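Long-time lurker. I teach an intro course on protein structure, and each term I like to show students one example going from raw sequence to a predicted 3D structure in token notation. This year I'd like something fresh instead of my usual example. Would anyone be willing to generate the tokens for the chain below so I can use it in lecture? Attribution to the forum is fine with me.
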Amino acid sequence: MTPRAVIIGDDRRRPGYALVLTLIVLGLMATVMAGLARTSATRAGDAARAERDLQLRWGTRTLRDTLHAQADAVLHPEVDTDDDDAAYRPTRFSSVAAELNLRLGGFMFRAVLSDEQAKANANHLLEQHGHAEANQMLVELSSAAYEPWPVRFAPHLPEHAQRFGGLPIDGYGRLFDGVRARIAADDGRRLPIDDVTCWGDGRLHLRRASDAAVRAALRGHVENDAVGRLLAARLEDPDAPVETLLQAIDLTGRQRQSLLRRLTDASACHSVRITATNDRGAWPSMTVYTQRENGADDPNRPPLTFTWRP
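-- Reply from a regular --
Happy to contribute to a lecture. Here you go:
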């Protein structure tokens, strides 16, 4: 038997092993670099989102606080306002008291100060007229807007209302369908929520309320022709106190007392509605404030904030 030579450590095999080892190392390095790139991209995305969220929160809060601070001067005609500032100029017979449109950072903001006391109160309509008639009145109020919204009249059941501050209707989602998208699309034209509210004490601010809101709030309390005479007297003298207007039209003593309980010359409830938009979507929010007669915020009724996410 012929013995065979065994070669240990054949140098001819080393280049192959080195190539495989090099490819493995390169693969590992590529994996690590891809991971680092993903981590960097994630952190960059997180930073961009954090910056966007900060701009959104800061802009919304700044506008909300600014309009709230000006509310008393804007909502009451006897308080002097800067006539050169179109944003704060009082608008007759509309719950919308001030509007601002401006760009802050990467967002376009639309802010609206509304007099909630200058709207027909849905809770009082329900209490005074029952579900079916109140539902029809909401349809009529919605139809007075530029683009009517589909009514979804769904008050809380009486046994559940106490959990929601005692109100059968505690938000616009119980009155209309698709509230978030419709508020986000607000372009300054008259909305159904400009004439109907869920908040306030039920009295109507006659100096600001629209004709539709006045007719809804007073339905069943006086005849339609008496409401028409009241609206005509208001048009003749928009700044006249409620008592003066009621004396100018032919009413019985009972009718006059009924209207005095349901009408007011001032507002104790207002809201600030803000919609921020950018190329990624829209973020509407709304804060409702209740005030005392001296104009200070009521500590027993803290502000209510509603936020609708995209």
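Some talking points for your students: Residues 63 and 69 are 10 Å apart (CA to CA). The longest helix spans residues 14-75.
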